Amino acid sequence: MSQIKVNTDLKALNNEIAAQNKEKLHSCGILTVDVLGSPGSGKTTLLENILPELAAKCRVAVIEGDLATENDARRIEKTGVKAVQINTNGGCHLDAKMIERQFEKIDLENTDVLVIENVGNLVCPVSFALGEDLRIVVLSTAEGEDKPLKYPTAMLKTDAVVVSKTDIAEYVCVSTDKLIGNIGTVNPDVKIFTAGKTDGEYRAEGLVEYILEARKNLK
Ligand SMILES: Nc1nc2c(ncn2[C@@H]2O[C@H](COP(=O)(O)OP(=O)(O)O)[C@@H](O)[C@H]2O)c(=O)[nH]1
Ligand SMILES: [Mg+2]
After folding, report:
1. Which domains does the chain carry?
2. What pLDDT, in 10s, does the model give residues 149-187?
3. Tens of pLDDT along 104-143?
4. Which of 6, 70, 161, 176 is most exposed, with minimal Cβ within 10 Å?
5. Shortest-distance Cα residue to atom 19 of ligand 1
6. What is the value of pTM for the model shown?
7. Residue nearest atom 28 in ligand 1 by C-alpha distance
8. Ligand 1 binding pocket mutation candidate from 45, 72, 74 (most atoms within 8 A of CB)
9. CA pseudo-torsion sign 37, 90, 92, 212
10. C-alpha to C-alpha distance for 72 and 79, rounded to whole angstroms
11. Residue ranges in the chain assigned as alpha helix (H)
């Protein structure tokens, strides 16, 4: 009983800080995007590939979340976009306080879109608001067609799902169409994108436009 109460209070406190983050970010005109998904689903690869186009159209900053290492922040900075790394030292998700602590390291006044790559995990990050406007779940074909059915909360509590690694679907015996069908079964309203390498070139059709449109519509 007391365990449940502590958990409820922690989430309520997190929600409060997330709301403050959102207010602060909106006051600077920033759209915040939380990117989440399993470890290895292709979150950083997706960002590496969309950031050059996104950064050509608006001012972008990135917060990277991982248990350990600065690897992903370094990968992102190779695209020319500034990235700060959070190490959770074992924590399975980012929380709103961790994001708030990064604000002094980011030039908020000169940022239009803040992208946060959450810790690789398809369960815990879903329950912790950060102050984001948009959530994007990256789900790779390699995880299997049934994962939307097994992890429905991640499909329900997101604005968009990017089905990644479409190029290797046939090698892992997965039908991208069936996977997309299962996402739609759980959440008929979610926006679905695909990403992968076709003819040697990585594509995530429509995703940059989707983020820019959301930035334009920011109240
Ligand atoms: N073939 C293929 N490999 C991918 C794709 N996206 C990511 N990968 C590979 O999957 C591995 C994990 O990717 P990463 O972006 O680090 O995943 P993260 O842990 O979700 O950030 C890396 O070896 C990537 O090269 C894709 O669309 N197609
Ligand atoms: Mg990563």
Report:
1. 2-216 (3.40.50.300)
2. 999 999 999 999 999 999 999 999 999 999 999 999 999
3. 999 999 999 999 999 999 999 999 999 999 999 999 999 9
4. 6
5. 40
6. 0.96
7. 165
8. 45
9. negative
10. 11
11. 2-27, 43-57, 71-77, 96-100, 147-150, 152-156, 176-186, 207-216
